[in-house]
Design brief:
This protein is mostly helical. Helices cover about 80% and strands about 0% of the residues. Helix 4 (about 85-100) runs antiparallel to helix 6 and helix 9 (about 205-210) runs antiparallel to helix 10 (about 215-245). The longest helix is centred in the C-terminal third of the chain and has 39 residues, at about 160-195. It starts with a helix and ends in a 6-residue tail after the last helix.
């Protein structure tokens, strides 16, 4: 237990030490790379004053809406695709093609279609998340063991019962993988949208403002805040995942 704690602490301390060394030895212009203490003070000031909390909430709300819609639609379509192998073979290439398109290249289309308000940001988060979730859900169904389904069929279970009680749960671990990967995409795309499109509130908007006003310590503090935000979301998802699929070894 003690060795795990030391390992957890050692990583961040090493990063801070390298950062401090880079600042002290002027590996970058000091005005462009403040020392860690200055950045941590800026981060503490933002959090203690509560000035950044509306931005966090705004980012979280838009990201959550797009991600939740992608989860509902993506899981539903993915499960349906995976149930029929010929249908999977016919559609997986198309789905994978759209998944491979960087969502940032579609930025002009989303702006023209939805404007620069909340809708376009939510739509881009949805797009970035949907195809990942769909592919993993379909693959989970396709790779589910057939023996249990065949046994249930021999005992008179209907197709709906087999899907509900066997196939769905067999596909759940792979579906959760898709949801977890999509969660990271959702946060990245939301912050990028705020930076590109602009918004009244949002972490990305504050990053852009800090950059344009040359508030470098605040800029680094916001970058760290975004990383902390993403890390916390990931840890919360892992906590949730371990309770949804406890039979999967970690």
């Amino acid at each position: 237990m003690r060795s795990n704690t030391v390992g957890i602490i050692a990583g961040p301390l090493a990063v801070v030490a390298i950062w401090q060394a880079a600042h002290s030895f002027h590996l970058l212009e000091p005005s462009l790379l403040p020392d860690p203490l200055t950045v941590l003070k800026a981060l503490y000031a933002m959090l203690s004053s509560g000035s950044v909390l509306p931005d966090i909430l705004s980012t979280l709300i838009r990201m959550s809406i797009g991600y939740a819609l992608a989860g509902i639609v993506g899981i539903t379509i993915g499960l349906l695709i995976g149930l029929v192998r010929p249908f999977y073979d016919a559609t997986v290439g198309v789905v994978d093609f759209f998944r491979s398109i960087p969502v940032t290249t579609l930025y002009p289309i989303f702006v023209l279609s939805f404007g620069i308000g909340h809708s376009s940001k939510i739509a881009m988060v949805f797009w970035a998340s949907f195809f990942v979730i769909t592919l993993n859900s379909a693959y989970g169904v396709l790779q589910s063991p057939k023996l249990r389904a065949q046994m249930a069929n021999l005992f008179g279970a209907s197709r709906l019962q087999i899907f509900r009680w066997i196939v769905f749960y067999d596909a759940l671990p792979q579906t959760m993988i898709g949801l977890r990967v999509a969660l990271s995409y959702a946060l990245i795309v939301e912050i990028l949208c705020e930076m590109f499109m602009g918004s009244e509130l949002g972490i990305g908007q504050r990053v852009t403002e800090s950059w344009t006003t040359y508030a470098i310590d605040r800029l680094y503090a916001l970058i760290i805040l975004a990383g902390m935000f993403g890390f916390l979301l990931n840890r919360l998802f892992v906590f949730f995942e371990r309770r949804v699929v406890p039979w999967v070894s970690r």
